[in-house]
Amino acid sequence: MSATRMQMLSSRSVRLLSRGRNEMLAGRSGAQRPGGDPRTRSLTCPPLSSSSSPGRALSSLSATRRGLPKEKMSENGIMSRAKVLTIDTMNPTVKKVEYAVRGPIVQRAVELERELSEGMKKPFAEVIRANIGDAHAMGQQPITFFRQVLALCSYPELLSDSTFPEDTKSRACRILQSCGGNSMGSYSASQGIDSVRQDVASYIVRRDGGVPCDPNNIYLTTGASDGIMTMLKLLVCGEGTTRTGVMIPIPQYPLYSAALAELGAVQINYFLNEEKCWSLDITELQRAVNEARQHCNPRALCIINPGNPTGQVQSRQCIEDVIRFAAKERLFLMADEVYQDNVYAEGCQFHSFKKVLFEMEPEYAETVELASFHSTSKCYMGECGFRGGYMEIINMDDEVKDQLTKLLSVRLCPPVPGQALMDLVVNPPQPGEPSYDTFIKERTATLSALAEKAKLTEQVLNTVQGISCNPVQGAMYSFPRITIPEKAIKEATEKGQQPDMFYCMKMLEETGICLVPGSGFGQKDGTYHFRMTILPPTDKLKILLNKVKEFHQRFIQQYS
Amino acid sequence: MSATRMQMLSSRSVRLLSRGRNEMLAGRSGAQRPGGDPRTRSLTCPPLSSSSSPGRALSSLSATRRGLPKEKMSENGIMSRAKVLTIDTMNPTVKKVEYAVRGPIVQRAVELERELSEGMKKPFAEVIRANIGDAHAMGQQPITFFRQVLALCSYPELLSDSTFPEDTKSRACRILQSCGGNSMGSYSASQGIDSVRQDVASYIVRRDGGVPCDPNNIYLTTGASDGIMTMLKLLVCGEGTTRTGVMIPIPQYPLYSAALAELGAVQINYFLNEEKCWSLDITELQRAVNEARQHCNPRALCIINPGNPTGQVQSRQCIEDVIRFAAKERLFLMADEVYQDNVYAEGCQFHSFKKVLFEMEPEYAETVELASFHSTSKCYMGECGFRGGYMEIINMDDEVKDQLTKLLSVRLCPPVPGQALMDLVVNPPQPGEPSYDTFIKERTATLSALAEKAKLTEQVLNTVQGISCNPVQGAMYSFPRITIPEKAIKEATEKGQQPDMFYCMKMLEETGICLVPGSGFGQKDGTYHFRMTILPPTDKLKILLNKVKEFHQRFIQQYS
């Protein structure tokens, strides 16, 4: 909490805060902990020759001045030397990057939390962070088996502890034996630990009912975001009208727009059909690519299934149609499937793009290039902090694969604890193993709670006049459409705010509920939405939904 | 090991290998583990409408064909459809990236390990990986305290285990209390966990003898590489002669050249003075920047201290001169200080750029922009796999800091276990705490062993005619200069190899020792070097050094 707090403060207040802390730290360190490693302190160092002018004596003045506020310093003109790196001289593509999930509304939420903690009076007792899919932060408990194995891998002396089940120990040993020096502290291969990639491959084979999977096509990543970013990086080239264009759904998860902005690629929007439960229409894909071909070179098509923020689950037929479209239009397919276990709606089922592709005619199965992404952060485990993930690459050119491996090698390897966790996710306890029953109990409890909360959210929101919410078939979010009266739109525009940002900010100030406005994900012009996670515990979620309901009714009254 | 093995195989052999594994996996999954989550399996899914042409029946043919080798498929022309992503149509900047530390010589080392494991006869029993600073892989043991706390954070139920010392528990609680939901599975703030950044700040204050440090200037990173890459990303702009140029030492750690290639920035080489123990001469910096100004816009100066691969430790005077130079030439300073605890030579001492800068006159202390990088991967802990690190940003423009935080937020956060580990490194057991004595014993043992091995390496290598090795004052590598006879240079040239690559490849084939040729780090034309880590256990290192000695003598004989 307070980490975010400090980070989000305005630069001004940050400077004020920090000066105070400086003195505190300097003081504390002076008193409690005199100076660092005694070995190095005891040494003295004859200056190595350097062919520059002889060094001057230290200005004792400077040392004392360090405490003075910068404002003071600036008066004597010292601050007047221009910075090398300014907003005007920095990388322009970075400036274009936006990421609403941690945008201004979250900064305000953090300020409100601080104000509450400082005893300031508010119309609410706590801020509820319904803006990000952070399951453990919302109170979800880790899977016992996963954490036991991670503890064993971190401190192998525990392998002799009789309280740990045998299967946690055998898993830990298998992981450690794949690590250099049997330690998670060693670098792994850049592509990821061999045995983990083999387990991922076996998992995919099981998941897809026997469709083969080659461990050499598996790349472990630092969360799914890292894999998606890396694949997009490979795809970007050309200038002007030949610049790489990438098709992304609208509404989208803003990692995509952020990555494309950073890479200077062209974002090609295709709109999901809200009237048809956020379904994907091939005619819309066709419209989008046709228009894009006039100003860029469309080379990739990104799909998020189950949908984030929209929660739809694609039918097998729809996936097959998308693959045919990608083949026809010569597009590299990127399938974001991090919510593959988060399917709740009756009659819905997760179909992987890989499985559907491999079951199609060879002219597709053998040629359509596909990257599929998974993560340890979502599903029933929600282990976001470990930054584990993998991507599977299908039909990729061998020379490009070599380039991909080379590119990954510069970063050395994904975090090994995240790789270990990914291994456990794809190779959980099996029937007959001591941890099996507990694992199934924990996983089922989490997934059925999520299914219940998905239904609950849809039902309650649809009782509110001016809010309409599609079924949350999967993933972890509702993305309801909201009516915003003309008078509110006018007031927002005067404030230079998007109407749904204005709406969400007002809700935050009045209720303490932190949502993300639809404008952060993209939406059809003239429509307004917000994204709300379904992650809070059921009792808390009920309160939250009623607060949203009451707020919306007040809001409509106020602006009608 | 075998992870790297598989990854490094040639595309051809990878294809062959993988086909076999496919069938194995498909078979295994069919037999042992019938399919995945029963809940989702039990559901059936009515296709969501999609406005495309009606889907065709699956070609049962395709399913059976999946087993056939691709070569077969290609005969009927199905493979003839060109790939979307090929070596010719991929991101050209990625193609320019090179990273010798995991380059062709390592790929060959991996093949040799496989050949050995398959019983093939070699003039050596094992491959010794002296190419990368991977301490645990070389048998270095983790610090007990660090791993105990990480185990507690992974599986907090252990907090009731009486065998864990009290200070490990208090540290674990402090870390967990800073995590959302008290779980390392939650996302942290993008800048890193607040309490960890405060501990990093306190550490820096102690390290630098009371010079203040603002936690708001600390950004936790995914290893130091991530921080360096991010800072360079902010700095890159302009085109043609206004394109950002970045000064890096030659020899350098190839992350820098790789990052600059990926970002399309201009690499400005300044040469370290091998005759003066790889010291940094300001006159050489001046030459490099003057020449560079004619074709690009020099904006940043990268320093690696202690040096990688060169092992020199900069004097306080030299650092002060560098800072004056950076101020005069208006360069953003990037100080790679990941080896700050790895200082061995009598009379040498680590001085941080931050400390020296803050002790200089305000015209420098208040204006020179500096980013300093540290990591959990080196020093006495060598925890590479956790990908922990931080950067401290000094005198950075506030708007740019906001942009930096925004950019980091897209990747959500650095791995939390790595953040926790960084916290322990900067806040180790204190005198009086139960873990203190063991911690000091372990740290001292590792650092004195490294000091001994640094001396040993220098001494033995300098007994060999045709090898001259500067003192390994710090870091983890020797970078000796080697004489390569004309005849060998000729043979290498005919093979299209760099002479030192030819030399290292030959050594690998004959002795099993894996080194990195100097050409992978950069060196003065006509000079040849190799980088060798000093990490193997002393007894093993002695054998290794003697093998190098014998090889070099044979090599000289053969080519004279």
TrEMBL record, chains A, B:
Chain intervals with Low complexity compositional bias: 42-62
Names of the cofactor(s): pyridoxal 5'-phosphate
Functional pathway: Amino-acid degradation; L-alanine degradation via transaminase pathway; pyruvate from L-alanine: step 1/1
UniProt keyword terms in alphabetical order: Aminotransferase, Pyridoxal phosphate, Transferase
Subunit: Homodimer.
PANTHER family, per database record: ALANINE AMINOTRANSFERASE, ALANINE AMINOTRANSFERASE 1
Protein name, UniProt field: alanine transaminase
Organism: Amphilophus citrinellus
